[in-house]
Amino acid sequence: MPAGTAFARGAATLAANAWPLALLPSAWHYQHPLLFSLRHGESALLWGLPLLGLLCWRRLPGLARVLLVGVTLLLVWQAVDYRLQREAVLAAGPAMRTVGQHFIVGYTDVEEVRELAAKGLIGGIYIGRRNVRGRSLAEVRDEIAGLQAVRAQAGLPPLIVAADQEGGRVNHLSPLLERLPPLAGVVDQPDPGIAAQAYGARQGGALAGLGVTLNFGPVVDLRPADQPAGDMFSDIPARAIGSDPEGVTEVAAGYLDGLAASGVRGTLKHFPGLGRVDRDTHLHPARLSETPAELATDWLPFRSLAGHAGSALMLGHVTLEALDPYRAASHSPAVVRLLRNEWGYDGVLVTDDLNMGAVYSQGIGKVASEALNAGVDLVLVSYDPRQVYRAIFAAAQALEQGRIAPARLAAGGRRLQALSRPPAGAAAT
């Protein structure tokens, strides 16, 4: 046999075996949240190629057949496992409802989230771009009001309705709501605090008119001098108020007061701060090696404003090595103890989205369970909302197995009740 022919046959055999092998990682990570926007194409490809292979079964080499069977079984297992967990959650047993009230979830299907809301399986909803795109203000407002009516009919507390409307780069409800410039723009005003309060009132009025009760802002991470090389999505230099902690504190305080006057609570984010982080937590784990003493200046806005106007505090997916080298702040008991015991903060703690790459690879259910057991009050699952079934299922199992302390959930429930009431200083309606 000529060498060229042998090489061609070898290459063909390798290719025939390689394509099922290439499918294995994708099948293992089937419906990964970072591929949410490609979900329909991903499903068609991962299910279509094995079916095509089965049609060409006799032409495939032996190894390719084994791999193809493995890919198919893996996909079937993933689909069945997800369906069983979803059905268990929707059965709405006591443990599911107990942990479910601590979840805030995005949605693409209002009927799906309506069922979760009616059964007491979530504590809140997140409104983002996909909920407002191509719709009128009245349509979105009526949809939110309808979900709140479902809660009232079921005798359940009102849903927390959260949004991410910072101004500037992050205006997830625009153009439905007015697109405001970055909050940092008020720093150069003659009285930044008063200007920030007016900004917050303007933004808060628009949010309240839609039915939003909690805004994920302001960003009080200090602005870094340079854009981190590995930052693709966070873009803290563009979103931060400034690099002077006292100036940031003054502006953020005014902004929170403005929101509160409109009946909307704010959220200080992203503790322990992203200003020094050189990796994007949307994609990768990130760590801070500095001690709490070395971070005291960075933390001044967080510590000074914790609880201001009844605001919440968001925990980022950054590992604070000096306190807990094994877990990110979002699910670290040591970080929660710092905030609760040393700072005396008794407000709501909310995680950043558990769909983010920094923590999702550890298992969304594992991280959600650890966050609740650490004393975090709200777990956010927004980008890929259907991951919430896995998270609630695992957390309910952890509660039943004694890996989540019921007393921590009860304390969190008390704080969530306080969050659902209008903030002090809100204008009467």
Automatic annotation (TrEMBL):
Q: What class of enzyme is it?
A: hydrolase
Q: Which reaction does it catalyse?
A: Hydrolysis of terminal non-reducing N-acetyl-D-hexosamine residues in N-acetyl-beta-D-hexosaminides
EC? 3.2.1.52
Q: Which SUPFAM superfamilies does the annotation name?
A: (Trans)glycosidases
Tell me which UniProt keywords the record has, alphabetically: Glycosidase, Hydrolase
Q: Provide one Gene Ontology biological process annotation.
A: carbohydrate metabolic process
Q: Which PROSITE patterns does the record associate with it?
A: GLYCOSYL_HYDROL_F3
Among InterPro entries, the record links this protein to: GH, Glyco_hydro_3_AS, Glyco_hydro_3_N, Glyco_hydro_3_N_sf, NagZ_Beta-hexosaminidase
Judging by the UniProt lineage, the source's domain of life is Bacteria
Ranges of residues in domain Glycoside hydrolase family 3 N-terminal: 103-417
Q: Which GO terms describe its molecular function?
A: beta-N-acetylhexosaminidase activity
Instruction: Read off the PANTHER family from this record.
Output: BETA-HEXOSAMINIDASE (PTHR30480:SF13), BETA-HEXOSAMINIDASE-RELATED (PTHR30480)
Regarding protein family, the annotation reads: Belongs to the glycosyl hydrolase 3 family.
Indicate what this protein is called per its UniProt record: beta-N-acetylhexosaminidase
Species source reads: Azonexus fungiphilus
